[in-house]
Design a protein that fits this description.
By secondary structure, the protein is of the alpha/beta class. It is built from ten helices and six strands. A six-stranded parallel beta sheet has the order 2-1-3-4-5-6, sandwiched between helices. α3 links the parallel β3 and β4. The termini are far apart. α2 runs parallel beside α3, α6 runs parallel beside α10 and α8 crosses α9.
Length: 217
Amino acid sequence: MIRLVLTDDHKIIREGIRALLTQDNSIEVAGEAASGRELLELLVHTPVDIVLLDISMPDLDGFETMKLLHENFPDVKVLVLTMLDDERYVYQMLEIGAAGYLLKDTSTKEMQAAIKLIASGMQYISPALTLNLLQKSKSTPHVFASQGIKKPYKELSKREVEILQLISEGHTNAEISEVLFTSKRTIETHRQNLLEKTKTKNTAALIKFAVLNGIIS
């Protein structure tokens, strides 16, 4: 059972998300918070695995809340759920410790899948957002020039490059497994190996690295 807390200053949104998530018996909504401060107070006596966190909130915004969560509850993973699709917000939230980033127009299925992947120790960014970041990096490479990209410590295999290209096109692990006629778990393993070989922390950083180093087109 994955225990999580919903954090959003709009009650109707919290109620809607709760209703959607309760359709999955492996996910339990252990509590709700209307602000960052309320969330931090709730976590003192409510152990959870994941926090679903909005960025635009009163009192403490998502960035301030994320930093305090990292300091006080380092084992709690954070999945950002927001309307903000600016790449700067994505990179900032991932940089300060978020495990995933979703937009509020995501589907129930994708939200449930993202929660499960993050609970298992992986990171997740919605494919649509990942594709947008890739397009941004192609058109404005100077935006990412100061990110300190390093060369891979190990060469990537032909299969890893194939998977990396498909990831950059916005395909999910399940879709890639169908294209390459292999299991979803095998794709997940390759994805993790790609992160380790390129010394990147998440999908967005992985794609940025691949584009800037000419690994994919």
